[in-house]
Automatic annotation (TrEMBL):
The gene is add2. Keywords: Hydrolase, Metal-binding, Zinc. Residues 20-367 form the Adenosine deaminase domain. Belongs to the metallo-dependent hydrolases superfamily. Adenosine and AMP deaminases family. InterPro entries: A_deaminase_dom, Ado/ade_deaminase, Metal_Hydrolase. One of its GO terms (biological process) is inosine biosynthetic process. It comes from Microbacterium oxydans. Its cofactor is Zn(2+). The keyword Transport does not apply. Coiled coil: none annotated. Its EC number is 3.5.4.4. One of its GO terms (cellular component) is cytosol. It comes from the Bacteria. This is adenosine deaminase.
Length: 371
């Protein structure tokens, strides 16, 4: 693996950035360009901790590297503050899509919480419309530059508030108008999915896809609730499912593992894990195993046959991209192009799209990696 002057990573003679990718776990309010934050803050008279884009980017990375999800989430106070107008939401969504396309993403799902963007008078419906307008503008701009990309919205409710049913109804209302799924986010520990059972019942009755943040700041009970109460089709992070695995013996690459019932269910049912390596380090999600990338149970889960996917979580906070996340995994676990292709196949299969469109994504990935 080598890195060129532009920061692109080459593996086996292939640019990782050029490879077709699928992004499933990417927060809109965690993916703002620092320069955009500064400009939007200036328009509304909001003070920012740094006045230069590079310095502000460094500030986010430093503040986010706390080892605590609660502290990590505090950085979002600044990003959401500049996303309270239709113009601000549309611009951020448009640039979000452009940045994904530039990173080689051909399909992405963007998750965000409309209830956090009402401070300047917008309604819930207006926020979703503003974001959808930006997504469509971004798709058109990407297409005009020769990059084809499609992005769907994951309408998200905050798990520590009481609006989940209202947000679930909003998501279903925008089915076919940009919304492809539902999520709950925010402080996980102490706010289990079971608190929002009515919302999840409604979504199940509406046959609307659900992913749930679980197994990040809380452990197996959170994952269990996501599956049983939330009927989650995917697990947002889900990294702590590894707590239900007991390594019996390990000799070189050979590992003998005892599965708990929950881990076996997730593995055998091929429930996708939306793993975000850099973020998982920053928030302390892998603290039970260590605090460096080599300690991340990603490789253990992959070798055991879990449906692992690679994601950025929050590009601004982690100063990352999907290309960078893949490069970190290659550097740490010595993966090759076949491994990276498997991760993209897993993500394509997990996308909240009709099966025909998922099959098209798989074909596009295969063609891109073969080329």
């Amino acid at each position: 693996m080598s890195i060129d002057a532009n920061g692109d990573v080459t593996l086996q003679g292939v640019s990782l950035r050029s490879l077709p990718k699928v992004s499933l776990h990417d927060h809109l309010d965690g993916a703002l360009r620092p320069a955009t934050i500064i400009e939007l803050a200036d328009e509304i008279g909001l003070d920012v901790p740094e006045s230069k884009p590079a310095a502000l980017g460094s500030w986010f990375a430093k503040q986010s590297d706390s080892g605590s999800l609660v502290e990590y989430l505090k950085t979002f106070d600044l990003t959401t503050a500049v996303m309270q107008t239709r113009e601000g939401l549309t611009r951020v969504a448009r640039e979000f899509v452009q940045d994904l396309a530039a990173d080689g993403v051909i399909y992405g799902e963007v998750r965000w919480a409309p209830e956090q963007h009402l401070a300047r008078g917008l309604t819930l419906e207006q926020t979703v419309e503003a974001v959808q307008q930006g997504i469509e503008e971004g798709e058109d701009l990407a297409d005009s530059s020769g990059r084809s990309i499609r992005v769907g919205q994951l309408i998200t409710a905050m798990r520590h508030t009481d609006r989940a049913l209202e947000i679930a109804e909003l998501a279903v209302d925008f089915r076919g108008r940009g919304a492809v799924g539902f999520d709950i986010a925010g402080p996980e520990d102490g706010f289990p999915p079971s608190n929002h059972r009515k919302a999840f019942d409604y979504l199940a009755e509406s046959f609307f896809p659900v992913t749930v943040h679980a197994g990040e700041a809380a452990g197996l009970a959170s994952i269990r609730s996501a599956l049983l109460d939330g009927r989650a089709l995917r697990l947002g992070h889900g990294v702590r499912i590894a707590e239900d695995l007991e390594v019996i013996t390990q000799e070189g690459d050979e590992v003998q593992v005892q599965f708990g019932d929950l881990a076996r269910w997730v593995r055998d049912r091929e429930i996708p894990l939306e793993l975000s390596p850099s973020s998982n380090l920053q928030t302390g999600a892998i603290a039970a195993w260590g605090d460096t990338m080599v300690d991340h149970p990603f490789d253990l889960l992959y070798q055991l046959g879990f449906a692992v996917t690679v994601n950025v979580d929050n590009r601004t906070m982690s100063a990352t991209s999907l290309t960078r996340e893949l490069a970190r995994l290659v550097e740490t676990f010595e993966y090759d192009l076949d491994d990276l292709e498997t991760f993209q196949f897993n993500a394509a299969a997990a996308a909240f799209l009709p099966v025909e469109e998922r099959e098209e994504l798989v074909e596009m990935i295969a063609e891109g990696f073969d080329a």
